[in-house]
Amino acid sequence: MLKAMVRVWPFCCLHVGSLNTQESYYEILEAMIDGLQILPAQNSSSWGPKLRILDLRHDSDCGTTCSQIRTTFPFCFQSCIYSQRSILKIEEAQHNVRCLGTGNSESEPQSTQEPMELLVDISLRDTWRTEQFLSFLLRKVEQSSGSLHLCCRDLQIEKISAHKSILQFLDLGCIEHLDIDQAYLSEVTTLLARVINVSGLSLSNIPFKSYKGRHFRSFLIWLGQLDNLQEFSLSFFSLKDQLHRLLRVLPPQMDMLSLSYCGLSSRDVTVLSQSCQATYLRTLNLSSNQIFSEADEPFQTLLEKVSGTLEHLEITNCMITDSTLSNVLPALSLCSNLRILSFAFNPITMPALKSLLQHLTHLMKLKYVIYPIPVHCYEEWNFHDTLDQQKLAKVQAQLNEMLQEVNRDDVNWTTFPE
């Protein structure tokens, strides 16, 4: 049915979005892609297929089709704007040639097929079905003789070395969000040179030998070329006392910064609090860093700096104690735009947890808190097998009662899923 629908779709674009089907998701994608008909150039048939842009991304953030607006080119809010092989670029070039009168049939041979675009999110995982789907995609593009532009906006890569052939095939200038897991820093740097328009970058498990080595310096140089970067995430990436070098090359007005498992020190937190990025951040994740082992003041200063913009804060597994929490509460209560707070897996007692709730009830935008299970609920703290579920149930009941007393039933206080 979907294949037939694609064949007769009466508009220039089709945004599929999320599908709830019993069939294999890859089979569904392949069926719709198979329904694409490569159209002859300047097709004047009023009854013929009109589809030029097929969007198979999970969340395309728009309706099934875009409003029809009279323009020289097929109109779509999601049309590719970066690649020279996109509909927009090709038809702009052809339009300019016609307007200037500089082209003729001999010097400017015209394509016999209409340019089309296929928008997909690609996950390069080392599975047989993924490889099969990618091979199908490549064949479809090759069969189009260059008229079908494969536009990947969201690319997830596990082990770059296992996917070098497909990475050479993709137009990486289209990428807006790039997620890399398990790669050498030199491989990441090579890729950054090609994803110049990326706005979201996530790197995890990226080993390197030395901060003084050429690979780290090269990485920072190419990272500094990503002018559109708004969201940046590093995890399992050693950065102790080196955060200043990273912040120096990142764009100043970033929305999100995530640095979990990066070995950050209190000195790094001080550097972050003094950075130009701090006053713009809406999401900050410093989980699994021992940033409170030396002093609390740097983090207090950081909270004061981000208080005007911060909406999402994660400080899970940072060894926050009662005294630390008590010291940072005044600064945390200044974060008037805070919506989500996660600080699970910290050794907090019940009195400290109650104090936190009382300090945060005036934050009217706060809707979701993931709190640590108080230490008295364990025989041995943070060992799940020693958790007393009855004690935990009493904790949740007490917190819910406190929320009801101050008319804050709209806030969801929950523990991290064990």
UniProtKB/TrEMBL annotation:
Keyword Repeat found? yes
Kindly give the InterPro entries that the UniProt entry links to this protein.
Leu-rich_rpt (IPR001611), LRR_dom_sf (IPR032675), LRRC14/PRAME (IPR050694)
The alphabetical list of record keywords is: Leucine-rich repeat, Repeat
SUPFAM superfamilies, sorted: RNI-like
Gene3D superfamilies from the entry? Ribonuclease Inhibitor
- PANTHER family from the UniProt entry: PRAME LIKE, X-LINKED 1, SIMILAR TO PREFERENTIALLY EXPRESSED ANTIGEN IN MELANOMA-LIKE 3
Per the record's keyword annotation, is Repeat included, yes or no? yes
Q: Identify the species of origin.
A: Vicugna pacos
Report the sequence similarity comment from the record. Answer: Belongs to the PRAME family. LRRC14 subfamily.
Matching entries from Pfam families are given as: LRR_6 (PF13516)
What's the protein here called? Leucine-rich repeat-containing protein 14
